[in-house]
Amino acid sequence: MNLRIGTRGSKLALVQSEWVKKEVQSRYPELRVELVKIRTKGDKITDAPLSKVGGKGLFVKEIEEALLKREVDLAVHSLKDVPAELQKGLQLSVYPKREDPRDALVSSLFSKVEDLPQGASVGTSSLRRSAQLLHMRPDLRIVPLRGNVDTRLRKLDSGELQAIVLAAAGLHRLGLSDRITTLLSPDSVLPAIGQGVLGLEVREDDERTQNLISFLNDLETELAAKAERAFLKELEGGCQVPLAGYARVEKGRLVLDGMVAELDGSVILKRKLSGERDKPEDLGLALARQLIAAGADRILEKIYGR
């Protein structure tokens, strides 16, 4: 018996896929699990912001195509890279327990965003992060930052930047938790849709693989992911939009925070909604519509040039 896992070749992607491989092999010692590295468009284009080269889907399309061609049986994604609409014939079937969803400030000299000097250079690849940082500190100079985690840390360590902002989950998974200066509260910097979540994608007709990996699913993570992705889908969000959503289970109910912002952070619209655990998509849809009614549609229209 074989299981072929499609993965990007970055260090973080391989760590994540190796974890899935190890868990599956522990469960099924007779199974031969193989990692198949696939280079995506997002891996090839490293000198331009994601918002300028196509946004969401840049890190998953080639892996999804390998799934559809039956070259691999399973894809392991960082869920925040996965578009709201999957390719026909594919499904996200398993969501392992979520890692820390927060963003992390990394700096050698300054412990908090508030401590950064006037006009400080802060590196981030995300419009979502930059909008929220500029809302807190309009004086900051946001520097577009692409590349893997090691590349970004080197740019900080070389003195080019005074701080960078990265997903805490990636630093934890790479064994770099000691580089985190401060974890940014979701109250000030709301995380990306699916941040800290792994999405395991399979073909809809492949019951064998679905059954093999079902033990990895964490129900609370699944509920949060489905609420956040329904929110994303209703707002037609992508990397071109400063948009955020963070769901979790609190006291038996599902709670979702959502945000849409102007690119410069001058306007930030935030709302919070709670609902029944068994209807996560309804919660995401309802919160998106609340934000649209509050003016998010005008922000989105301006950004997309409609």
Describe this structure in words.
With 306 residues, the protein is of the alpha/beta class. The protein has three domains: 118 residues, 3-Layer(aba) Sandwich (D-Maltodextrin-Binding Protein, domain 2); 82 residues, 3-Layer(aba) Sandwich (D-Maltodextrin-Binding Protein, domain 2); 89 residues, Double Stranded RNA Binding Domain (2-Layer Sandwich). The chain contains nine helices and 13 strands. α1 links the parallel β1 and β2. The termini are far apart.
Structural class: alpha/beta
Query: Largest sheet, described in full?
Result: 5 strands, mixed
Estimated share of beta-strand residues: 15-25%
Helix share, percent? 25-40%
How do the strands of the widest beta sheet line up side by side?
2-1-3-10-4
Unreliable stretches (pLDDT < 50, length at least 5) are none
The CATH architecture of the largest domain: 3-Layer(aba) Sandwich
By CATH, the superfamily of the largest domain comes out as Periplasmic binding protein-like II
C-alpha termini separation? 51 Å
H/E series: EHEHHEEEEHEHEHEEHHEEEH
- In CATH, the topology of the largest domain is named D-Maltodextrin-Binding Protein, domain 2
